[in-house]
Amino acid sequence: MKIIRYPNIENTTKLLKRPVLEMESIRQKVIPILNSVKENSDEALFNFTKDFDGVNLESLRVEKSEFDEAEKLISDDLKTAIEIAMQNIFKFHSSQKSEINKIEIDEGIICWRKSVPIEKVGLYIPGGSSPLFSTLLMLGVPAKIVECKEIIVCTPPQKNGKVPPQILYVAKSLGLTNIFKVGGAQAIAAMAYGTETIPQMDKIFGPGNQWVTVAKQLVNADGVAIDMPAGPSEVLVIADDSANPKFVAADLLSQAEHGPDSHVVLLTTSEVLIDAVTTEIENFTKQLSRKEIIKKSLSNSVIILVHDLKEAIAISNNYAPEHLILSVVNAEEVAEKVI
What we know:
The protein is an alpha/beta fold. The chain has 2 domains: about 1-20 and about 230-335, Nitrogenase molybdenum iron protein domain (Rossmann fold, 3-Layer(aba) Sandwich); about 30-90 and about 115-225, Nitrogenase molybdenum iron protein domain (Rossmann fold), CATH 3.40.50.1980. Helices cover about 50% and strands about 15% of the residues. The protein has 14 helices and 12 strands. A 5-stranded parallel β-sheet has the order 1-11-10-9-12, sandwiched between helices. Strand 9, helix 10 and strand 10 (about 265-270) form a beta-alpha-beta unit. Helix 8 runs parallel beside helix 9 and helix 10 (about 245-255) crosses helix 11. The protein is globular, with a radius of gyration of 22 Å. The mean pLDDT is about 95.
């Protein structure tokens, strides 16, 4: 990571410039994929899975035996961690359910707001080099809480033609059985337009690479609802001398490992912390399987030494990170200044 000390605050916009993505060239490649799925349905999905994932599938749907096999491959420790995460996510999102509050705004005129579940939702779960089963927890739990009528999951298969066992274990734990072995732009097309095997969905959720992002934008322009066109992962950590350098390093690496275009930033008031965090990043990286991706991500990332927390907040507010972590003594007080 580049280290910048006490920059002029006006110059931080340039210092924190996000990696530029060349989307137009990807768009021109994604359009034919969407059109092919529209025209050729399952046949296109099998062909693209062979071309992009290197797998010859006999079926797109995950069978019951595959769920049972996956469960045997998951360690007890991971099962426990997944269960705890599921309970925590369930508690948080359950609290968002609200009772209908009817208000008489004028004599005989009663208004109220009622939230109803989307009937058919498609969840895209990235696979590839890092199966994001946590994404399935984050999307699947709320969908189950509100009782969406139909929930399907699309995720790319591994080279052995199977879905990563962690994803299948989470799906089984949530009671999700309609899981399909298809990824990339072709998965978005399948959920947007429907095929012989994969039903058309009302709304598509979930992150992905640049191809998936562009595909979601294109089907959205075609009238299909999406959550948002998620970009590369990013995190900004604001830390003072009270911060634990191991925790700060772990927070930065948690996003850096997502992809070479991830962007991570540390703003700190402590020179000592900079040395400690960089040491911990080096130590952690040596132990991680995705070290090459992390190194590429960190080459685009920066540590900035600032005079005080007021300056750090000003820089953060201007940057507006996807994830913001406050590792400071008075975190709640500082959080009130985030805009």
